[in-house]
Write a structure and sequence with these properties.
heterodimer; A: 2 domains; four-stranded antiparallel beta sheet; 8 helices; 28% helix; 21% strand; B: Alpha-Beta Plaits; 8% strand
Chain lengths: 274, 285
């Protein structure tokens, strides 16, 4: 399979190539969005609610397919990966939700073990690996606690440990701190940075501008009404017609909207595919 | 595999009522199939005893010589459809009449000359006891010059054959219908089980479980439900048989292989129905 061979050569974990996603509504959820995310890069995906952040993440996990264009995540193309093979992508791309999506009534350890079991880890390795993963997210002392007894921040840590179970190259996070208080939010962000420092790319959707300001080294991608209107990795941001539709969209970050080609620092070795 | 078995047991433990109810419904649906099986089997046995009486009788002329009769008898015996040929002399025919028609015994005794002809009674082999064969044998027997007349219960044989075919068709149609009902019940039960575990399935898909891995516990659940239903159906059918046998009239129990086939069918339907349901679910999410 071609997309597997690509993995060794492609320095990108995500490629959006002129991606459009339409639903039954008149306005597309995403409109001609192109960007690349390099390995081990940390990026915030921001925008108002309804701007298409979640849609972009869902496309990157092949929960849905683009109406037009191509999405590649961890080497798996939306055009060439059959529904039967999506599980291969899922093991290379972790996903964290705002509402954690843990198995209620089971312990933190069970939740992580479940993921390891589901992906077919050898039985003898499951328990020590689950414990190690919980240690990695700082939850080793609470491994035996039932999910309901854990705080929001702790539950999100369990979810992150679970997402790390298959040792993915990329972590997608959809408003992971949306339900958390200030302190827990900071803790989760620190954890993401630590994970990122180990070489995993992180794409985190958030509308928390304060949070992004605290991490100025992270790349910022902004969506507004389905258009990618800002990319901090771009050296220049030419003004385009997109700006007209986004009166409220770009107020937070003082940068004009732009018609985008792939981010400069993430420029691939080979010419851009269309 | 361990995971599959464990998850299936957990599912049964979590919703024993659901499993119990669907197994019972499947059992009742298959019970109907079992009753038809029991009825068909007994009707078939009864028809077979009736069919044994299907024979062709060639009445012989009074002037037939012993040599002619012997030639005809051996010619008929050589036909593949013929099981055996009995020669009945005039005297034997009269004796038989006394025995079978006692109300006419006085008239028969008063006769000065025995009016009954000698005959060759031709029995057919089990597979050949139908109207077409009987007709052909009768025609061949009639070719012999010593034969006065050939008789067999043509209409009777035809009716018997029709009855048997009707029974087979009825059983097949109704059996299939109720088997489909059983499959639908299992499919619905598995859909409910899938619905109860949809969050878990979502998480499995999220972390990269193969579809087959997600399928397996549901397939096993469907198979077990089908097996339980099938066993219940056999038990109910046997109870019915026992009651009828003891309180109404003598019937025979179906061969145990039929019961085995019934339970296996329950398992196969269970696995297929749940496989269909879970595949459909995974395609929708």
């Amino acid at each position: 399979m071609g997309n597997i061979n690509l993995r060794g050569y492609d320095p990108h974990v995500i490629k959006f190539i002129h991606v459009t996603k339409e639903y039954a509504r008149p306005e597309p959820a995403l409109s001609d969005v192109s960007f690349h995310l390099a390995k081990a890069q940390f990026a915030f995906l921001t925008g108002h609610s309804g701007s298409g952040k979640s849609t972009a993440l869902r496309l990157a996990h092949l929960v849905e397919r683009p109406t037009a264009g191509e999405v590649r995540a961890s080497g798996f193309s939306s055009l060439r990966t059959s529904r039967r093979d999506v599980w291969k992508l899922r093991r290379r791309v972790g996903y964290v939700f705002q509402d954690f999506r843990l198995l209620p009534g089971r312990t933190a350890l069970d939740n992580v073990s479940f993921a390891l079991e589901v992906i077919g880890s050898p039985r003898k390795q499951i328990l020590p690996r689950a414990q190690r993963l919980l240690g990695q997210v700082g939850l080793a002392p609470k491994a035996g606690a039932v999910v309901g007894e854990l705080s929001g921040g702790e539950q999100q840590r369990v979810a992150i440990a679970r997402a790390l179970a298959s040792e993915p190259l990329l972590l997608l996070a959809d408003e992971p701190t949306g339900n958390l208080d200030e302190r827990a939010t900071r803790g989760i962000l620190e954890l993401f940075w630590e994970i990122n420092a180990l070489g995993m790319a992180v794409l985190m959707a958030t509308h928390d501008l304060e949070l992004m300001r605290r991490y100025p080294s992270a790349r910022v991608l902004e969506l507004d009404q389905g258009h990618l209107v800002y990319d901090s990795a771009k050296t220049e941001q030419p003004v385009s017609s997109v700006d007209e539709n986004s009166e409220a969209g770009a107020d937070a970050i003082p940068a004009p909207a732009g018609e985008l080609k792939p981010a400069a620092e993430a420029e691939p070795a080979q010419p851009q595919e269309t | 595999m361990l995971y599959t078995i464990r998850e299936t047991l957990i599912a049964f433990k979590r919703a024993p009522l659901l499993t119990g109810l669907s197994a019972t419904m499947v059992g009742l649906a298959l019970f109907v199939v079992g009753l038809f099986g029991l009825a068909t089997y007994n009707v078939r046995l009864y028809l077979e005893t009736l069919e044994e009486r299907v024979e062709v009788v060639a009445y012989l002329r009074d002037d037939a010589t012993t040599a002619d009769i012997a030639i005809m008898e051996s010619a008929l015996t050589m036909l593949p459809e013929v099981l055996g040929v009995d020669f009945v002399t005039k005297a034997e025919a009269l004796e038989k009449s006394y025995r079978e028609l006692p109300e006419f015994s006085e008239i028969l005794t008063d006769l000065e000359v025995n009016p009954l002809p000698a005959s060759l009674d031709i029995q057919l082999r089990p597979g050949s006891r139908n109207a077409a064969t009987a007709d052909r044998i009768a025609q061949q027997a009639a070719l012999h010059p010593i034969v006065e007349e050939v008789q067999y219960g043509r209409e009777w044989v035809e009716k018997l054959f029709t009855l048997r075919r009707m029974g087979a068709v009825t059983t097949t149609v109704l059996g299939t219908a109720f088997a489909v009902v059983a499959a639908l019940i299992i499919g619905t039960a598995v859909r409910i089980a899938i619905f109860a575990r949809r969050e878990e399935i979502k998480i499995m898909q999220l972390v990269g479980a193969r579809d087959s891995f997600i399928h397996r516990p549901f397939l096993l659940e469907g198979g077990i439900t089908g097996a339980l239903g099938g066993a219940l159906a056999v038990a109910l059918t046997y109870t019915t048989f026992w009651s009828v046998f003891h309180y109404l009239f003598t019937i025979s129990w179906i061969p145990w292989e039929w019961a085995g086939i019934g339970i296996s069918a329950g398992i196969v339907f269970g696995v297929l129905a749940s496989g269909y349901a879970v595949r459909k679910h995974l395609r929708e999410v």
